[in-house]
Amino acid sequence: MPTRAVGEAGPGPITGAATGPRPDRLLDAPTRAVGAVGEAGPGPVREATTAARPDRLWLLDLPARAVHAIGDLGHRHVREVAPRPDGQTLAVLTWATAERNPGVFAPGLFLVDVTTGATEDLGTPALEAADLVWWRQENTWQLAYRGLTPPALVGGHAIFAVPGHRNLTARMTSCPIALAPGPHALFADGLDTTIRRLDSATGTFVEAERARGSLTGLSVSEAGTFAVIAGAGNAPEEVRTHRTISRTGPTGIRWGTQERLHYPAEDGTDLDGLLVLPPGRTDGPFPLVTLVHGGPYDRYADRLNLGWYPSGQWLAAAGFAVFLPNPRGSMGRGHAFAAEVAGDVGGAEFGDVESGIDLLVERGIADESRLGIGGWSHGGFFAAWAVARTDRFKAAVVGAGVIDWPLLAETGEHSRFEAALGGKENSPITHAHRIRTPVLILHGEADTNVPLSQAELLHDALGDREHEFVVYPGENHSIRGRDHQIDVLHRTREWFSRWLTPARPA
Length: 506
Fold this sequence. Notes:
Elements: E1 3-5, E2 32-38, E3 55-61, E4 66-69, E5 77-83, E6 89-95, H1 100-103, E7 108-113, E8 119-121, E9 130-137, E10 140-148, E11 157-162, E12 166-167, E13 175-180, E14 184-189, E15 192-199, E16 204-211, E17 214-220, E18 226-231, E19 238-240, E20 244-247, E21 258-264, E22 270-276, E23 286-292, H2 312-316, E24 321-326, H3 335-339, H4 348-362, E25 366-376, H5 378-389, E26 395-399, H6 405-411, H7 415-419, E27 439-444, H8 452-462, E28 467-472, H9 482-500
Parallel strand pairs: 1-28, 23-24, 23-25, 25-26, 26-27, 27-28
Antiparallel strand pairs: 2-3, 3-4, 5-6, 6-7, 7-8, 9-10, 10-11, 11-12, 13-14, 14-15, 15-16, 17-18, 18-19, 19-20, 21-22, 22-24
């Protein structure tokens, strides 16, 4: 079947969600500012060379209008800078090189004296370290950050304290999402989110506030007042402190009913997820589309599930019931739960998803003869993996999906992280000869996270079997062009409508 390219005459390339060197940063202070900028300092931007240039640490003396390098960091690439509240010291996160691979695998954490430039090595932080936060305890400055839970490359994030890089969240069954002054942190807790504060006496995070659904963008004032972006149920997101101060979404829309699901896996493991029904309808069984989230370290929170990619409310409006599962590997149930997919992606998590579908069929919500599956990124992998394992699904959408794990480890941005998830036997390409389900393949032409070669493998393997292959020019792993996003939405809904033939909404 021929490859289709969408929007070839449209706007130029738009960068998606690829991870690369961060933009230049500047941190303000009353009389001086510090920042990480290109090696040659401020001035005209030079053409890129084959190797990414590391960001350096520079001091801007505002009264003197002078700029000079600060700190003895060698040729390391500066990733993040956090001034201590007294303005005397900087905490600096670095990589060995500006390139993600191998830079991310050789991180460093340093203290730099703003006045003298004296540099102290605090030792090797956890991989993917970020969100540096200072706080004061018993007249001593303390430092914390969020990073990957050691020792493996799969298992989600933890919060660490310096000195010693002590894991402060090791025994928790919820997962830190973001770190803020206090220190306070957002934690994914099942389908919900909590704000917790570090208790200096016990060295543990205690709950300060629990919210249904999702909280993001945590900001904390010196007085301890929280500001967050909150989303719960079918309500659009809103900016909230102790009261709602800004609603960001439209009103008057008839959304599909969203139900929280809790169910056991085959081995008794507690699982959760969401079910979205067509607006105003309860007369199942419905055609059911299962949408698996990316990651796998991610989750569906109990919030309005509507986005540019195939999403719950978008498909529910067309008459589908939509299942949004949080299988093993997801965030929100602690490190051990997240780490269960290490080396066995698509293993136990596949059974977790099927258990949820079985429950919905038994309840009379889902029509067993009209099941579809889809997703983006890891969800795209899962959709391809599912139809290579079973003919149960009558339609699939594979968005930016992993088809060959060993190849991705060699060509994608996350190298060893991908190799830690799966190998040849976990790859849909190994079992693609079994696929009989109609498959819609969607991919960004400029994807650096999961390169286009992954989609091309599946397209070639399917040969003359029913499928469609769509490439979005200039797009990276996330589709950013508005016309392309609209095409993704309509194309996926039309694909499921074609093969699952749902009743049209009134």
